[in-house]
Design goal:
13 helices, Rossmann fold, alpha/beta, 434 Repressor (Amino-terminal Domain), single chain, about 350 residues
Amino acid sequence: MTARDRHRRMSTITDVAREAGVSVATVSRALRGLDRVSPTTRERVLKVATELDYVASPTATSLASGRNQVVGVVAPFLTRWFFATLVSAIEKTLRQHGHHVLLFDLEDDSFDRRLPLSQNMLWKRVDGVITLNLPMTEDELTLIDRLGLPLVAIGTPVPDRPNVRIDDALAMRVATEHLVSLGHERIAYVGAVPSNVAHIQTPQARLDAFHDVMREHGLAEHDQWILGSDWTADSAAADTHTLLASADRPTAIAAASDEMAIGAMAAARAQGLRIPQDLSVVGIDDHALSNVLGLTTVRQDVAAQGREAAEILLRSLGVDDVADGTATEVVVPTELVVRRSTAAPHRPLPAD
């Protein structure tokens, strides 16, 4: 049987070994880049494998290595831009090193609950876990330890595990200070969440920072100007509608995310308010739509966080071709990006 004949059906490792004139074990070692294979033999095996379009069986590779080359990515939401961007960056990084993603979306029917991570999800399915802004319960951490899985957390830290994040408090401080520097004193906030929300740390850190800046500048806060939200544009638009319809309204809104800032901008325009003449709005993230909408924001590099977390996990798995690094806590920098949605507050001309 010629190589062309074999090409008409799915090639096996035995076909490659026969065509290259070596043993199956030698083919396996050559394709996995292991030692004890001469450069000449390795080159011949790779050439034959390419000609036959041979693809190694994932199951066979798993049995040989004891690993699945699969990483579990666990998120409270997968429909949000932030989480989708993280997953994309993680998947691309893992794929470059022969690994793949298994997604676990723990979103429940309501915003303030999530599904638990279970043994059935992880056992014999993944080699490690990356969590996306997700606090882990004691039972879940016990499960991770019992299964011997390395874990890297993005955003909300997990005790004694590597962590990649931004400084949430600093990001909101920069956003609020920007409004204050423009002369705003009447500033509202959107992004407060109930204390029982599963991913509470990021919202709470940003709200606390907002309070700190207002207090440090001696600016009055109004309870009705601290708006709750489920961190979506639709929710933020609904939450700000009543506030902006009032005669006693703020001159600026600090939103804890760009999606909520976009919702606040939409609510303002629906009521005939001009941005930024009548209302300044600032967010955090640099969402994919923020530039085209002219939104001032504190930019975080979401994709960089995903790449960094994936590389840390790959190193913990002993993958050889990952860039060297020893950091187990990485704080990715943020920066203020000023666009068209913020300006000094409009002050009416004095009457003659």
